[in-house]
Amino acid sequence: MPVAIITGASKGLGRALARALAERGWDLVVDARSAGPLAEAARELRGAGARVMALPGDVADGAHRAALVAAAGELGGLDLLVNNASALGAEPLVRLAELPVAGLRRALEVNVVAPLGLIKEALPLLRNSSYFSYPPSYEGEAPYIGDAPFRGDGYPTEAYDPHPYSENSQNGDLSDSHPYVGLQGAVLTVSSDAAVEAYPTWGGYGASKAALEQLSAVLAVEEPGLRVWWVDPGDMRTELYAAAVPDDDDSGRPLPQAVVPALLRLLDGAAVSGRYTAAEPLPAPDGASSR
């Protein structure tokens, strides 16, 4: 069975994605800072059929990150790392003139340093994954028509490209081998349009997400065998947003479950590394969307 690590999985988008993967037969390593809600989430995931290792802790703690990766190894490896845990830096959000330096430091530690640390811990297992060598949609014969490579649903008609998944990584040093050979695991990082748009009071959080997106972009270039996706999930009704803007009426915002199908399409399509918005994650990376 494929294995995923999902941080911040006790609620919101992390829990919704974990449930969807559990229903698909994935085994899971999940974390959150609060042990009670995480244990509740783990019971739900086990009820959906998954083997689950639930480790409460702070992703900013290097020992905790190492424990998450070790737990994935115990389950058999690692095919997908989801960096979902986030910190706002101030609750509610404030203008930069009032943003505590300690709050910005916390946002950078959780939103940037911790994901990089977790990626570094996980790279040996991710490099050893063969999940995308035969994507979920693969059945029987290799999905080609003549010289055209498989790119998801349906059959393309364009001329053969020996590197169909590398255009976003700008790699010029890949061999002309079968495009599935050497494909490894995936890193899915939850970002925000605050990383690319200037919204009042979102400066500290947005700066941390912008740094995270740049790290993701560089990782995609440096690790061409991995799928690296940084995704703006769009507006959601979550506790994080309520803490950020408590006076805002979020009743019209969709629940996190509505975003999950877009994330699953990235997996199912073995999407090229890049920035995506949940509104339309395939076939090509997109620019900014909404928080």
Automatic annotation (TrEMBL):
Keyword Iron part of the UniProt annotation: no
Family annotation (Pfam families): adh_short
Q: Which domain of life is it from?
A: Bacteria
Renumbered to this chain, region (Disordered) spans: 156-176
Q: Name one GO molecular function term.
A: oxidoreductase activity
**What are the EC numbers?**
1.-.-.-
InterPro entries attached here?
NAD(P)-bd_dom_sf (IPR036291), Sc_DH/Rdtase_CS (IPR020904), SDR_fam (IPR002347)
Q: Where is the signal peptide?
A: none
What keywords does the record list, in alphabetical order? Oxidoreductase
The Swiss-Prot or TrEMBL record describes its family as follows: Belongs to the short-chain dehydrogenases/reductases (SDR) family.
Name of the featured protein: SDR family oxidoreductase
